[in-house]
Amino acid sequence: MIVKNVEEKDNKTTFQVEVDAESFDAAVQKAYQSNKGSISIPGFRKGKAPRSVIEGMYGKDVFYRDAMDELGPEALSYAITENKIKYVGAPSVTDMQFDDDQNLVYTFEVENYPVATLGEYKGIELEKPVAEVTEEQLNEQLENVKKRSARMVPAEREAQMGDTANIDFDGYLDGERFEGGKAEEYNLELGSNSFVPGFEEQIVGMKTGEEKDINITFPENYVEDLAGKDVVFKVKLNGLTMPEYPELDDEFAKDVSEFDTFEEYKNDLKSKMQESGQAQLDEKYRTDLMKIASDNMTVDIPEVMIQDKVDEIIRNYAANFGLRADQYPREKLAEMLGIDDETMKDTMVPAAEFQVRVDLMLEAVAEAENIEISEEDGNEYISKIAGEYGGSAEDLIGYFGKDFILNEYKKEKAADLIVEAAKDVKGKTISDYVSEEAEESEKEESKEAEDTKEE
After folding, report:
1. Which of 110, 126, 71 has the alpha carbon at shortest distance from 424?
2. Which CATH number fits domain 262-454: 3.10.20, 3.40.30, 1.10.3120, 1.10.3210?
3. The whole model's pTM is what?
4. Between these two residues, 124 and 58, which has the higher pLDDT value?
5. Is 208 left (phi over 0), alpha (psi -120 to 50) or beta?
6. Phi, then psi, of 19 in degrees rounded to 5
7. Which CATH architecture has domain 2-112?
8. In the chain, which end has fewer C-beta atoms inside a 10 angstrom radius, N or C?
């Protein structure tokens, strides 16, 4: 094969691949072998007619199309590899013809992979936030742990909010039972707002063994048969329990932790809260730096890259709901996930563009800084990632490909470089680089980016 007439214009590259006549004839022979079994020619048993006879009856070019389809991908792959052409989207064949020597010449066109021109990415000024845990936050967390440690005990009194009521109930609409309105021995936490508005409040004040009719009007946005309807629930309170909370003392600490004293447990809890809070702040700090660095870059992003990223985001959402993305077209998936045109335009597309822009910036930084991955480091990284997801390195490479994984590692190192080179300047925030509206939009985009990255 020969690659020739490579031309770049308007962010597209066109090139030709010449396949010699001998190679083309071999492809035609292969097409003949594949198809002859389905061809009937008078005087020959089915599948036994010679190629020359079939060509004589149906035309010399009867197997050309199959041969061209067979050789096309091979010709494209050869040209892409030989000339190191980076492209996005799907290549197109704009022409196929034979030259005077009966060589087959393909003409391909691809959209060029965007070339980014980096701006400032090292030494970005941004205050690095430090997590602080207030006494109020610590006490709130302790209260949450205390509530989770509560034990339920019988309540020998009237029902109150916060109690768990064991009830039988039977719902009636216009004197007739309605479907789904009956249950026995149901445990309902009063104040949880898990029932129709007004139901739980009317349990308050009842005593064990008491029966009562509860009048309810269903909300207008309820199921069609009951929306806005007045109904009556016949309710019996079978039993009542209330939470008994432990004292925040040394015994409590021993029950919920490995510490012997409450003070030790409290200090450890504060330390963990600080660590968790700092991790969240560090992640936002990193995202803000990526935003600033990518905004400083100049690049024309092809629309196909953004749309491909939108597809990726939607596929990841679908996976969260157990949907097989390969079984539905994008529009159908979006409909099933409740993603309307407005959400697509205002949320999905900006999130995709943000991710693509950051990826291009990081690739450009990795190239500018000559970031390379040694064989040893690469294998260690792959093993670490595979271990985090409970798989093997071979499975990971089989699914993504080693080049893709190592490219992600390069981008990770590029991001680390940007973070390490940033200057901690007090009072300097992301708002000094972007408008408030853009910052709010960016928060949503970065969340989408993190969700996709996690998937």
Report:
1. 126
2. 1.10.3120
3. 0.71
4. 124
5. beta
6. -105, 120
7. 2-Layer Sandwich (3.30)
8. C
